[in-house]
Amino acid sequence: MRIGKAIARMARNSGFGIGLAAVLASVVIWGAQLPVAKSAYGLMDPVSLTALRYCLAVSLLLGLLAWREGAASFSLGERPLLMLVAGLCGMAGSPLLVFAGLAYTTPEHAVIILALQPSMSALAQWALRGSRPALFTTISIVVAFLGVVLVVTGQGTGASGKLIGDVLVLLGGACWVTYSLMLPLFPTMSALRFTAVSCAIGTAVIILAALAGMALGMARLPQPDQALQVVPQILYLALAGVTAAMVMWNFGSARVGTLNSILLLNLMPVETYLIRYLQGAHFATQEWLGAALVIAALVANNVYQRRAYAREGKLVRA
User: Fold this and answer.
1) Taking the model in full, what pTM does it have?
2) Element holding 64 (H helix, E strand)
3) pLDDT < 70 stretches in the chain
4) For a FRET experiment, which of 100, 110, 253, 262 has its CA 20 to 30 Å from that of 217?
């Protein structure tokens, strides 16, 4: 009841409502991202697709940053080495590994694995900062991981569950967790600047990876007569998936808080499964059960954390 009253009070704040809409919009965009990317793989390899996507996205992000904060904001900030690591992990390693893994596995498997990122973040903070999660959170993490095991070992029609792809996606998720944990290390840097500068670093690495792949015959650009067929996917992945969604997520999360943002993020696998079902994919009972366990465990832990914050008299947005 106290949580409901707190949410109601914040809902009356227009800033909270706008932030909620921004986070929800970014989650909806990301929920369709993996099926959209997979649909382009017949004409483009993952590395070239990622390179084109980020080249377009970073151009827009840097233009927006120059307009809002000036050209001086293009610097790496007070901790340049950490910024380089952030760009390498979050904006190069994460998309390259996830999109490469997607070539071997299915969007529904990938999105369930990526849904583990809050759990991976809790484990990372435990290992790095000694911040041991509560018993309920630990149990939720175990249940979520068991759910992922059920999903990736399922043998439903249309879902191969190949281990190599799932492992690559998992590593990509770990890279994104590393990136997320670095944001608080730049307290004087705006979310837009952190996103744009790290994205520029990551894009440079992705371009080098694409060039190396082309030189080795492992990557390719689409033929001119095929290029038009993947333009919608590239525009969606770049303009919506990177530029719009990232800006809206950072904008909205700052207004509604981490717990509310993560709760809405749990809608992403639901949307991806729905899209795949409408595309004709069929899932084994084991896969449905695993996906349900993952989502239920994450939502339950989010509710538990809300109640813990409420008991301590903290804002729900903490």
Assistant:
1) 0.83
2) helix 46-69
3) 1-14, 155-161, 258-259, 309, 312-318
4) 110
CA dihedral for 25, 261, 108, 125, sign (positive or negative): positive
Amino acid at 172: G
CA distances for 194 relative to 4, 59, 147, 216, 240, angstroms? 34, 15, 34, 33, 18
Nearest one of 118, 147, 120, 86 to 301, comparing CA atoms: 118
Domain ranges of the chain: 14-311
pLDDT 10s digits, 55-72:
999 999 999 999 999 988
Amino acid making up residue 241: G
Specify whether the backbone of 158 is left (phi greater than 0), alpha (psi in -120 to 50) or beta.
left
Handedness of CA 200, 202, 205, 211 (dihedral sign): negative
Q: Which residues contact 291 (CB under 8 A, 6 or more apart)?
A: 108, 112, 147, 151, 269, 273, 283
Lookup: tokens for 155: 């043998």
> Which of 267, 273, 237, 243 is closest to 36 using CA atoms?
237
Tokens 């759910």: give the residue: 147
DSSP type of residue 223? P
Indicate the burial class of 312 (C-beta count within 10 angstroms; 0-12, 13-18, 19 or more). exposed
Q: For 89-223, where are the alpha helices, taking DSSP H only?
A: 94-102, 107-114, 117-129, 135-152, 163-182, 191-215
CB 263 within 8 A of CB 317: no
Tokens of 306: 């809300």
